[in-house]
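Write out this protein's structure.
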Amino acid sequence: MPKLFSVALVGPDGSGKTTISRRLRETLPLPIKYVYMGVNLDSSNLMLPTTWLLNKIKRGLGAEPDTRGPRAIEEAVRPRPKNPLRRVLAEIKSALLLTNRIAEEWFRQGLTWLYTWRGYVVLFDRHFFSDYYAYDIAPTPYRKPWTRRLHGWMLDRVYPKPDLMIYLDAPAEVLLARKGEGTVEVLEERRRAYLEMRAHVPNFVRVDATQPEDVVLRQVTDLILTFKRDRRVPDTVPAEESHA
């Protein structure tokens, strides 16, 4: 059986990633393995035992699932404690969490290699590269903590990118109306970051996610089948005229 490839559906919450990936698993005429490849542990279908344990401890201590929506980039950086002891403890905690995060990311990538070599198309719902791009990889006006710089370097320079990345794009106003999370300004900031990723991902294609669901599904299906045949795709798929 020939080695197949990985496909990542990326985009902000409300763009339809999970819905389209679910329908692809039902309709795509190729063998598929689904892997949630994002930061939300409560949505993950695969994870390391250490990650599962850390998540259970957080929930046991009363932490709620993160449903805040996208944050402004500057809000993702916590100020360093002023107390020297607390600062050292915070650095140790950050290093341990980073170690587990990187191990988790490589664990899922290892499964991806296994699945593709066994003849499956691996369908990613989200991808670590796109989830962390704006916060850990893209240039920012402030100095990032060393953990974010190291993590961003690893994702950008070492970690394998998906063979095909499909960005489901929608204006901030549409996303806000669908999910009610974040602000127009933050959502537009994230939208610009998604479009910047085109320069970092060899096979990156944008699909208009404001189209009817069946149209988006058909276009994404065609892109995957075209990539299987040609190992390339167009940069952008135009919206269908019937949607205008």
